[in-house]
Write a structure and sequence with these properties.
The protein is mostly beta strands. Helix content is 9%, strand content 53%. The strands form four sheets. Strands 6-8-9-10-12-15-16-17-18-19-20-21-22-24-25-26 form a 16-stranded antiparallel beta barrel.
Length: 436
């Protein structure tokens, strides 16, 4: 990453970024289809309001194990036999390339001015598809910036899992109809195992942020002076626990009518398969969908996460409890999202308990408005009431973003974030998000 630090005026940088965006936005319109869209001959917007945000059909597609809901995928797509399972005959039906991140940044705070060219922080490939009607898979391999020192690494990505439709494993039927005075659709239970993000079924999922690069404070770790169980530093703004971007675990979820129930167990933060404390975390979540007529739809969710020996304060392992609520409301071209999450640490060392705040909370609210079929405007407000050591600081972020889609799967954005209280500064960034 190239960094130049000196006192320069803001106006030339803003002008340069606006020129870059103008060039990008004047490109000739064209369209491309990522892996699932190629496979099923659909547009990207069949599943997304605008990538990466899912619409109602996209959520049902994910729930069905990456298959068109209420269909038997294996009967309508040509497969090839590999042992006892079947896989797609066309590599492009399971293969995708991902690139996203800031191309240029300009940060200012106090007397400090910094212009940097980090280029996309995340470049990777993923393989995803279905072996059978009941078994699907998702494996991501990434090349990304791993820490603040600029170290780069390639390896297994944030998420890598197998998903199984348990009833279909035995009956061959991917959904069941039950009658209790009226028809009720029951789907699943679905089992996910591997590196997972449980919040993918939450009303405000961690891994589908329209505003990328600025972590949502509701999902952050929130505590100063806390490390992982294996003594690695834990950034205050890092998404963790139920809202992780990917951690070893087993997840079970099912849809009953418009309700989703979910439960699972996880290793915890940065835990290796041989977790030294042999204790696991578990969580429960409930979601209720509503609407579906007059252009109105949405959902409400609540969850509880119960972590045991999940992190460290000094040399002591501590338990971590997290509860949260979230919701979204979609009307025509406007999407509204919000989440509030509280965290509590337990079993703190007695020697520091008086100076250590064991409670913290975060709040995030966001609005996205599709002004044209290509231009998406977003606004988000985050507030963090931090916990931890006496050096803790609260913070807020106000973010504005304009994202322009040259194609459904290829967009450029211009973002401005203003941070207050926590570490007052202003950040202007221009970047891209690309999926093939």
């Amino acid at each position: 990453m190239i960094k130049v630090t000196h006192t320069i005026t803001r106006r030339p940088i803003i002008f340069i970024l606006l020129m870059i965006m103008t060039i990008f936005m004047s490109a000739t319109p064209s369209f491309a289809l990522p892996a699932f869209a190629r496979k099923y001959d659909l547009s990207c917007t069949s599943c997304h309001t605008k990538p990466p945000r899912l619409n109602a059909f996209g959520e049902a597609f994910h729930m069905a194990g990456f298959q068109v809901p209420m269909t038997s995928e294996g009967e309508i797509r040509e497969k090839r036999r590999i042992g006892r399972v079947f896989s797609e005959t066309n590599l492009l039906d399971i293969f995708s390339v991902v690139a996203r991140g800031d191309l240029a940044r300009y940060a200012s705070g106090g007397q400090r001015r910094e212009f940097s060219l980090p280029f996309p922080e995340n470049i990777g490939i993923y393989l995803t598809g279905t072996f059978t009607d009941a078994i699907s898979y998702f494996f991501e391999f990434e090349h990304e910036r791993q820490d603040d020192s600029g170290n780069i690494g390639f390896g297994l990505g944030k998420e890598a899992f197998v998903m199984m439709n348990i009833p279909a494993l035995f009956s061959g039927d991917s959904h069941t109809m039950l009658s209790h005075g009226s028809s009720l659709t029951v789907h699943g239970p679905m089992l996910m195992a591997g590196k997972i993000d449980p919040s993918t079924n939450f009303s405000y999922p961690t891994n589908r942020q329209i505003i990328e690069g600025i972590q949502s404070y509701a999902f952050a770790s929130k505590f100063f002076g806390v490390t992982t169980a294996d003594y690695k530093p834990l950034a205050v703004t890092r998404p963790v626990l139920y809202n992780t971007t990917g951690s070893p675990g087993i997840d079970l979820h099912a849809m009953i009518g418009k309700a989703i129930i979910q439960g699972g167990i996880m290793e915890g933060i940065n835990a290796n398969p041989s977790d030294e404390n042999n204790k696991k975390d578990f969580y429960l979540m409930g979601r209720m969908d509503f609407g579906g007529a007059s252009y109105i739809s949405g959902s409400l969710s609540s969850f509880g996460y119960f972590g045991y020996d999940t992190a460290r304060v000094q040399d002591a392992l501590v338990d971590w409890r997290r509860i949260g609520i979230g919701g979204n409301l979609k009307y025509r071209f406007l999407d509204l999202y919000g989440a509030y999450v509280e965290d509590t640490l337990q079993n703190l060392p007695s020697a520091i308990s008086s100076d250590f705040d064991k409670n913290a909370a975060g709040f995030t609210v966001e609005g996205d408005y599709l002004t044209t079929d290509r231009l998406l405007l977003s606004l988000r407000y985050d507030h963090l009431r931090s916990g931890g050591t006496s050096e803790r600081q609260d913070g807020s972020i106000f973010t504005l973003q304009s994202r322009y889609y040259l194609r459904d799967n290829f967009s450029f954005y211009l973002r401005n974030s203003t941070t207050t209280e926590f570490a007052s500064k202003n950040l202007i960034a221009s970047g891209l998000s690309f999926d093939f």
